[in-house]
Amino acid sequence: MYPTLVDFVGNTPLVKVQRLVNPATNSVVLAKLEGNNPAGSVKDRPALYMIQKAQERGDINPGDTLIEATSGNTGIALAMAASLMGYKMKLIMPNNMSMERKASMAAYGAELIEVTKEQGMEGARDLAEKMVQAGEGIMLDQFANPDNPLAHYHSTGPEIWHATQGQVTHFVSAMGTTGTIMGTSMYLKEQNPNIQIVGVQPEDGAAIPGIRRWPKEYMPKIYENTRVDRIIDMSQSLAEDTMRAMAKEEGIFAGVSSGGAMAAALKVAQEVENATIVTIVCDRGDRYLSTGVFNPIK
Asked: Where in the numbering of this chain does the Tryptophan synthase beta chain-like PALP domain appear (predicted)?
């Protein structure tokens, strides 16, 4: 029996960060390389899981049109999963997202609908709702769908627990839809309630692709304050600097939100003793090259 693409979502590597960690610390920082998923990000997990569960319930059937608002990674993952499982996909996103993200969605056969940078993700979510109300398709709604965090409860959390042999003390994750941090927290806290869950959000004025500081009325419905022990506000410059350092000093080629999460994990490592800190490297850096964030050679 040969495996299909579905079988290669998850079970991503967990690797030790070697040079970025302050040598004076006795804590370990581990990076979970979610760019190794088939469509290149941690969002492969909830995208596939949400479609599978909706199909099992009879909410959707192959051939249906799915509609979703996305800043990029979820859209790419949903486009991949939709093509794999026989669905049509309409994705709404702000027009300032990278060309690589847009091209990837189109390559999987998705229809891309853009809102302005000023409208942002809030505008994309509003338009998706209007399209659903107009009967143009069905929305999985990553922001309110409990299958989003459950994907991580059943995969990301157990993988981290087993890979660290239960030694994980801190879990650090950037927060966008918050599905990753919610589901992973749920699982890890069941195993050991003393594990510290650290969320990362942009500081005021920062625009870090993939993570958000949501207005109260747009806060994802799946988010629960009690599942996060600490939130670190991240500057754009530190997130970008750390992202570049990850590539140059660790060989980990990732996006800006991963840089922000890593910077937060390194901060935690300097504050604690004998900790095992796991952070999510949510995607690959190649989908940000056209933005110039990696300072390409002229």
From this structure: 7-283
Size (the chain), residues:
298
Edge-to-edge strands, sheet with 88-94: 111-115, 88-94, 65-69, 138-139
Concerning whether 298 is annotated as a catalytic residue, the answer is: no
Determine the 3-state secondary structure of 117 from DSSP. coil
Q: Give the C-alpha separation, 236 to 242, whole Å.
A: 10
Q: Is 257 a known active-site residue?
A: yes
* Assessment of whether the complete model's pTM goes beyond 0.90: yes
Contact 137, 69 (CB under 8 A): no
Q: Read off the tokens for 257.
A: 């939100």
How many Cβ atoms from other residues are within 10 Å of residue 270's Cβ?
A: 11
For residue 155 the two structure tokens come to 């995969």
CA torsion through residues 65, 128, 178, 279, sign: positive
Quote the strand ranges of 86-219, DSSP E. Answer: 88-94, 111-115, 138-139, 170-174, 196-202
- 180-226: pLDDT as tens digits: 999 999 999 999 999 999 999 999 888 887 788 887 888 899 999 99
Quote the tokens at residue 272.
């604690």
Q: In this model, does residue 77 exceed pLDDT 60?
A: yes
**Which one of 27, 32, 43, 185 is the catalytic residue?**
43
